[in-house]
Input
Amino acid sequence: MSGPIRAPWAGPLGLYHPGSSAIHRAPAGLKLAALAAFAIAVVAVRGPVSALVFLGAALLAQLVARLPWHRTTRGLVPALLTAALIGAYQWWARGWATAVEVATDLVALVLLGAVVTATTRSDTLLDVLSRLARPLRHVGLSPETFGLAAGLVLRTIPVLARMSLETRDAARARGLDREPRALLVPAAVRMVGHARTTGDALAARGLGED
Output
């Protein structure tokens, strides 16, 4: 008997959780700037103790935002697996201190990023990105096009993830879940088809003709 059907991952733009916390009310630009400063500090400050402090700060932001843990933990699973693998390698290559630092820094960054996306509407985030891209006008790139491209990338991630899961389920139903071609070829065909459909839809609206 198959297990319960899980809702597909909604991607970075599907994490928004309405709320009235101070982090929810903060301007989107300020939150993105704080996230960027946090990332710079994580890279610049070295050591396992500082990494644990950064993780504590990210956890504190999660608590202040009063977000249900399931809103962020689902997005953390891949990061935790990656951090575990990287940490294991760093432990073997450079010792436990570096392993703790690298793995904890990664989890802290992903967690704070999840808090930002969970407390900020996707349209607001994309508007901020478009405003930040205004200097690109001087090199011939429209800020609106940049914002559209960023939105398409973020919205495409969960679509591709869903296609991969559906292809895997279809191969499993035919008893071919251990056959790489039964997984890769249909998934690639569907992804290319989605890309062409998206491109045709943009072209029909006259986007990108400039």
